[in-house]
Amino acid sequence: MTTTPQQLPAAAELAALRQRYRLERERRVRPDGARQYRSADAEFGYYAADPYVGEVAGREPLRDTVDVAVVGGGFGGILAGARLRREGVESVRIVEKGGDFGGTWYWNRYPGVHCDIESHVYLPMLDETGYVPEWKYAPGEEIRRHAMRIARKFDLYTDALFSTSVTSLTWDEELGAWIVATDRGDEFRATYVVTATGTLSEPKLPGIPGIEDFQGHTFHTSRWDYAYTGGTPDGGMTALARKRVGIVGTGATGVQVIPMLAEDAAHVYVFQRTPSTVDVRANRRTTAHDVGADHDGWARERRENYLRIVSGETAERDLVADQWTVSAGLLEKLLPSFRRQGERQDFEAVYEAADAAKMNELRARVEQTVTDPDTAHKLKPWYRYACKRPTFSDRYYPAFNRANVTLVDTADTHGIERVTADGVVVGGTTYELDCLVFATGFSVGTSGIHSGKLPVHGRNGTQLLRAWAQEGPRTLHGFTSNGFPNLIQLGILHNASSVNFTHILDEQAVHAAALVAAAEAKGAVVEPSREAEDAWIAALAEDAPDHEWFHAECTPGYYNREDRGRPNGPTAYPHSAVAFHEILKHWREHSMDEILRARACTRA
Ligand code: NDP
């Protein structure tokens, strides 16, 4: 914790804050919870169309055979491909909905897009590619290009399918292979399938009455329309010079976009429901010397040091020393290690005063920067630090001092009330707009094989989600499931998590590649027994006490599933990512044979 004892609020202040947080939460809880949103499909499908490819060229459907099909070409899929190559697997086909590699960095090219995790730990495979980022926080385009760099280095372009979505996966027992069907008519075979479909990939829209009536221009931030705005992610949106632009949403994306719109648009209306915490950004150029890039393995060391600290483990030094590591003690509320000891009494005794001190500091930052008292008042966040994803910007609050920026608070009306042909209605006032941008985030858990949109049929035609409907998800370590041979799942289910998610993905990729290599070496298939799954689920459940109370006191958002619903069974590994990685490594070294089963037939 960074706060000193004299800064810690007294008991009376803490009691007042608790009351204030409760009221702010009650202002925002909606009975419809997550049902308030609409997905960007069907009649709203144009919000999800790919603006970065022109006409997609036709091609003949594929009917061939590959060793490994990877579903998704974001960092998860790319890293799986790279790690498979390192294990000597030659035939790897990545299937990606976008027109190139990059995943979230392919789609999110909005003005101001950056990663707020330090580039030297966020960008994977820096040791392997010899690349050293020059900024502490990299722009999105640099990250996207790095994804492409890894793909080129490991020759992943050769067999990749872009602008293609996998529509079903079906295990063929006789062939001992998966049949991978796509929306381009492909039906090819793959001995193994690795799914890497991401967690925040499907844009969502608020279910606001009249949204379809808007006659101006509209798009979602993850499909920024530069053809309309002009400019690039670095700004220069000259076509907005005479436009009134409304933006809905002030999460991590909105905080990056709004200062850019403020510079270029005639007027910007920011429709805010819950203010984010916006901490110091302090982006700066870095040298190789600054980040210790002077010896082999420097990036791995830095990344591991970072993971230890943000996972609540001890480390001799804090190499990255940014707001994430400095506030790691407070962010433990998001972490399994906190959940383990996460009784309310512990929180009040150990964390609450430090949390309040941090939030007071962030509220003071608003007051010190924003000149209009009413606007400053509305921008102050009233909840605990780990309730919402922290954001970082040195340009966000100053944007509200500009004459061409208006903050419209929508908390009392649970978001914007209505969209009309001309604009947006809040509290009976209509804000006339030429352009309406949705920075309203992404559906969580609605893509990929765990969503039902990509049906998976395993042995005997068993459908994955139906098999899990009664008992909840069943896996060993989150990667493999009984009845679904040679299917390797990357993602957050039953697995570890961290703010530095590319690190998690890389460890997952290493594990996936090791599973494939072991199965190939033994001429086996990868499939855990039900007993192995039972043991893993029991391990997940055993140390996962009720930690819901913390999020139950938060304002709604995707961290607390919009305040609704409990998952069916444990969803995540209940300790730190560091501990999880040690378990995987130990298991690979000593027990991997337990999931290698004899192949039922010779391969076609
Ligand atoms: P979020 O889901 O975090 O934010 C959505 C925003 O839309 C919220 O402010 C929400 O308000 C608002 N909203 C939704 N419905 C309405 C409505 N009806 N009326 C008014 N406002 C509404 O999405 P983001 O795209 O900002 O971020 C998603 C995630 O992407 C982040 O949490 C982060 O993990 C990642 N990200 C990472 C970045 C990085 O630098 N590493 C940068 C950007 C994103 P409310 O809070 O009240 O629900």
Would you mind describing this structure in some detail?
By secondary structure, the protein is an alpha/beta fold. It has two domains: 5-48 and 204-281 and 359-439, FAD/NAD(P)-binding domain; 65-202 and 444-598, FAD/NAD(P)-binding domain (3-Layer(bba) Sandwich). Strands 2, 3, 4, 5, 6, 19 and 20 form a seven-stranded mixed sheet that branches. Strands 8-17-9-10-13 form a five-stranded parallel sheet, covered by helices on one side. It has a three-stranded antiparallel sheet with strand order 1-7-18, with no helix packed on it. A hairpin with a 4-residue loop joins β5 and β6. Residues 1-6 have low confidence and may be disordered.
Helix-strand layout with pairing:
Layout: H1 11-28, E1 37-39, E2 65-71, H2 75-86, E3 92-95, H3 104-107, H4 119-122, H5 126-129, H6 140-153, E4 166-172, E5 177-182, E6 187-195, E7 202-206, E8 217-220, H7 226-229, E9 244-248, H8 252-264, E10 267-272, E11 278-279, H9 298-310, H10 323-326, H11 328-331, H12 336-340, H13 344-369, H14 373-379, E12 391-392, H15 396-399, E13 405-409, E14 418-419, E15 423-426, E16 429-432, E17 435-438, E18 442-443, E19 456-457, H16 464-469, E20 487-489, H17 501-522, E21 524-526, H18 530-542, H19 548-552, H20 577-590, E22 596-598
Parallel strand pairs: 2-3, 2-6, 4-19, 6-20, 8-17, 9-10, 9-17, 10-13, 11-12
Antiparallel strand pairs: 1-7, 4-5, 5-6, 7-18, 14-15, 15-16, 21-22
Helix pairs in contact: 2-6, 2-17, 13-14, 17-20
The chain binds NADPH dihydro-nicotinamide-adenine-dinucleotide phosphate (NDP).
NADPH dihydro-nicotinamide-adenine-dinucleotide phosphate (NDP) binds next to helix 8.
